[in-house]
Amino acid sequence: MAKLQSLDPTTPMFAQFKEKTGPIVLANTFVVPKERTEAFLTLFRRQAEFMKAQPGFVSLQMHKGTADSQLLMNVAVWESTEALATAFGSPEFQRMAAEFPDDIVSYPHIFEQIDV
After folding, report:
1. Is the model's pLDDT at 104 over the cut of 90?
2. 5-24: buried (b, 16+ CB within 10 Å) or exposed (e) per residue?
3. Please, which residues bridge with residue 106 across strands?
4. E strand spans, 1-116
């Protein structure tokens, strides 16, 4: 299973699930060894298809770092933290998540849009 790390150590993603808010954006940055990129994306696409079918899902995009970077970033919009937490905690999603190799590191964080 990929290692989950907190982008903000004072506010891990699981603590953010307790905040009842929405809409929200999940930004999840992955560090993926270059030789594992294609295999990672194959697994990720399966997860994405599952998530797209879940209540409260809005949209998803995957981005790759430039200049031969090892970083990939998923940006997913959900109606609420509750919807994301329910989908994330489902046994089917957890089974898929367990398939990711241990040398992949994931930095998920939940954001709300603000006016600027």
Report:
1. yes
2. eeeeeeeebeebbeeeebeb
3. 4, 30
4. 3-4, 24-31, 57-64, 71-78, 105-111
